[in-house]
Target: Amphi-Trp domain-containing protein
Amino acid sequence: MAKELEELDVTREEAAERLESFAEGLRGEGSFDVNVNNRTVHLAPPDDVGMEIGVREMSSLLRGDREAFTIKLDWKPE
Model:
């Protein structure tokens, strides 16, 4: 399966709504769908998943200060 990556500029509220949608899918029973670009991906996480959280602060004379927050979840489908 190919990796799908979607980069968007959204408001904080839109970002929160998207994260809440993912959380709702994870809380539910069984599988759920995620839309990335123009593709719908069917995900089937088990009860236990791996989780990685990262925070990065960057400073550059040309680009200025930036911050990044990433969340990665991974699992073997049941």
